[in-house]
Write a structure and sequence with these properties.
0% strand; mainly alpha; elongated
Length: 464
């Protein structure tokens, strides 16, 4: 049985405490009104757009004064007055837009970290299900590690669902289609495209879908662990067979729910844009993250004297999956980018123009971290058996896919007002600490070997 070391437990608690403090600071430091926004823009020197509006307003004001002092017609005076009011109104609208962006920043940082760790655990659950239904002979010695990681799923699901509910209750503005009046033709905020999608993108239907998906994933996670533990003490394979049938059904549900989830929780941040590859793209990102998490936890447990039945061949196969799915992710990234960029349809290509112009470093940095680095490091067969190589590659891959989720979400919520600051770092620390605490606590609850799995002996003697 695994024992959760006091040092690791203390480390995870410290991460959560620091994360909570940073998250709180992010919300408290967010501007409350447009006056604070003006001060922030002036202090940061990023108020060029607002300054342009200010100059326009000043020019209008100067023109008005000139006309007041000169012999001018009544119509000219009224025109100058109208220009001044129009410029002032435009400036106010711009400042309100920036206010919403800056207020969205701590919410968006929290959302990115929350969904990343939630889907990471889902990636592990999907990998476990595929291994189980494929009756893979190499991986059963890793099943308890996978189940330990998926123990985070109910915790992450609860926090994420609460965030979704708060979005629907207008605690933030991160989902523009949830804004007031966007589907009302009489409202100034009316958006014809969003109104056309309102039959699907509406809060009641959206939150019900989220509840169904999260509940379905967690029910399978609970059932498969229960059956796996029961199989340890059984005299036959009935629990294993029940698990097999449930897993086959779950994978069908997962394929459908994963695609819809990616539209609902990520793609709808840009409701004017869509991609038919997006569901696969999101899946590849969190799937390789989940496999990487399995590898890192396995290496850690082996370094502490556990998992003596796991050999370098198991580590090698995990590294092969890390390498292979990284290439698959790159294929989807390039396919989505190339087709949209080549077609050059304004409604579609604006998605990438925004990211290339405003998110240049994280956009192309994600490609380096998620493709170039794994390709150079993990293509070598011998490197796949070295623990320190696995750890180094794994850390870069996880960071790279966090950046990938950052790229998918932030442009639609904070626009050009992004930077990696306290809210972003604190959110990662909090959810990383929570993830470590939940996962390694779960690993103490059951033996680390699923001893009655029909393929366990084959798995223990697996060599490649």
């Amino acid at each position: 049985m695994y024992t959760f070391s006091s040092k690791l437990k203390t480390f995870s608690i410290i991460l959560m405490a620091l994360g909570l403090l940073g998250i709180g600071y992010g919300f408290l430091s967010a501007p409350k009104n447009i006056q604070e926004v003006e001060k922030i823009l002036e202090a940061d020197g990023h108020g060029s757009h607002g300054a342009a509006h200010g100059e326009a307003a000043e020019a209008s004001h100067t023109t008005a004064e000139h006309h007041e002092g000169a012999v001018a017609s009544y119509e000219e005076h009224k025109g100058a007055e109208h220009a001044e009011v129009s410029a002032s109104k435009e400036k106010e609208e711009h400042l309100n837009h920036v206010l919403h962006q800056l207020q969205n920043k701590p919410w968006s940082a929290l959302y990115v970290a929350c969904i990343f760790f939630l889907l990471l655990s889902m990636g592990v659950l999907a990998f476990y299900a595929i291994q189980h239904v494929a009756q893979a002979g190499w991986s059963p010695v890793l099943f308890r590690v996978m189940q330990g990681i998926t123990a985070y799923l109910p915790v992450g699901s609860l926090i994420f669902f609460i965030i979704l509910v708060l979005c629907g209750l207008h605690f933030n503005h991160i989902f523009v289609w949830l804004g007031e009046g966007v589907t009302d033709p009489k409202n100034a905020n009316y958006d014809a495209i969003i109104a056309g999608k309102s039959g699907y993108l509406n809060f009641p239907f959206w939150i019900v879908r989220a509840a169904v998906f999260l509940l379905g994933w967690n029910l399978y996670n609970y059932a498969t662990r229960k059956n796996c533990l029961a199989q340890d003490d059984a005299n036959d394979d009935l629990n294993y067979k029940k698990n097999f049938k449930q897993t086959a059904g779950f994978l069908v549900f997962f394929i459908v729910s994963e695609s819809i989830m990616s539209w609902d929780w990520i793609m709808s941040f840009d409701p004017h844009w869509f991609s038919t590859l997006f569901g696969w793209y999101v899946f590849a990102s969190f799937f390789v993250s989940g496999i990487t998490a399995i590898a890192l936890v396995t290496v850690y447990l082996k370094s502490k004297g556990y998992l003596d039945f796991v050999n370098t061949s198991h580590i090698h196969d995990l590294a092969k999956f890390m390498f292979g799915i990284s290439i698959f992710w790159t294929y989807l990234w390039f396919s989505q980018f190339m087709l949209i960029w080549y077609a050059n349809i304004p409604e579609e290509v604006t998605y990438f123009i925004t990211r290339i112009q405003l998110y240049n470093l994280p956009f192309f940095g994600a490609v380096v971290m998620n493709f170039v680095f794994p390709l150079l490091i993990l293509i070598n067969t011998d490197f796949k058996r070295l623990n320190w190589i696995i750890v180094m590659a794994g850390v870069v891959i996880l960071l790279g896919h966090y950046v990938d989720f950052f790229n998918m979400i932030m442009p639609g919520t904070v626009g050009d007002k992004w930077f990696i600051g306290v809210p972003e770092i604190a959110s990662i620390l909090f959810f990383l600490g929570l993830f470590i605490f939940v996962v390694f606590t779960a690993l103490t609850k059951a033996p680390l070997l699923a001893k009655r799995n029909p393929f366990i002996e084959e798995s223990k003697h697996f060599h490649y």
